[in-house]
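S.,

Sequence below, as promised.
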Amino acid sequence: MTHRYGVPFVLVFLAALPARISQQDWRVALRSYGPVRFGMTVGEASRVLGQELNADTTESCIYVAPASLRHRVNFMVIDGHIARVDVDTVGVETRSGAHVGSTEDEVKQLYTGQIRVEPHPYTGPEGHYLVYVPRDSADTAFGMIFETDGRVVTSYRSGEHAAVKFIEGCS
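The prediction came back faster than expected:
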C-alpha cells in the first residue's frame, strides 16, 4: 500500500511510533548515553527520553537526573545543552564494558593504549584519573574520565571535552 505522496504507508506508520530502546543500548559512549547525545538541547533530550527534564535553562550549569531511567545518572546541562553524563552507581556500563567497580587493569585492557593515568586531584597519589585518549581526531571534542581509589573505578563521566574536565561539576 502506498501513501498518496508515494511513500509506503508502512514506513510512515512505523516512523510515527516511539523507538524502543533495549537495555543493551543504554550504555555510555564517548558522544552519548543511550539515545541522549552530548550537545542536544534539554528539549531534544526530553523527547528521546519520553519525559520532561526539569532544567532551569536560565542557569549556565546545572544537573538533571531523569527519573525514568533504570539506573540513576546525572546529566550536566550547560547553557541549555546536555554536556556530559556522570555515573557513580553500579549497573551503568560504557559501550566497552567498563563500570563503577571495574579494576584499573580492566579499564586499561578495555581501552588498550588509550588510557593515560594521572593522580586524582583530591585523593592522589593513591587515587587516579584514568583519562581516555581518543584515536580518531574527530573524537577529540569529547572525553571520558574514570575516577579510581587506586584499585577500582568509583565514578566516571563522559561528554564534551571541556565539560568532562570540570573537576567539581558545576561548582
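Residues 19-164 form a domain with the protein yfey like fold fold (CATH 2.60.460).

Coffee later?
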